[in-house]
Amino acid sequence: MIIREIQPKDNPAMAACIRLVIPEFGMPKVGTAYEDPETDRMFETYQGEREVYYVIEEDDGEVVGGGGIKGLRDNKNNVCELQKMYFFPKTRGKGYGKLLFAKCLQAAKDFGYTHCYLESSPKFKAAIHIYETFGFQHLDAPLGSTGHYSCDVWMLKEL
User: Fold this and answer.
1) What is the CATH number of the domain that holds 112?
2) In total, how many domains does the chain have?
3) Which DSSP letter does residue 58 get?
């Protein structure tokens, strides 16, 4: 298994992953990454300064998940957002999520962000547990304007 930056050829795999996982966990398609226009063009979406999207590639070359860091939209503070962290079912339980999460947080620090924000759903219990163990604190309201209004768990961590 390797964690590497996304390439154009990875767009279909990550779009398929996101669109499989969201309904699998009973999340609505509207107001989530499922309908986000960035989902079909992940490589192109993460080419700016202070942003990166990583994919996990298994030994056979198959992309099995990913996650990224990007500045939080409509937030004037030095806050980034952990975005679109999803894994195909066969990948879960192998510890890849924690490794990718740590890599994303390190990238956020290296980019000079002071805080990292994320949005999720109570349906993603295992993910929320990981976020909490990494020191994320729950918020009472969302930050920025992500467009993901169906996500009702908001968390923030000082980097």
Assistant:
1) 3.40.630.30
2) 1
3) -
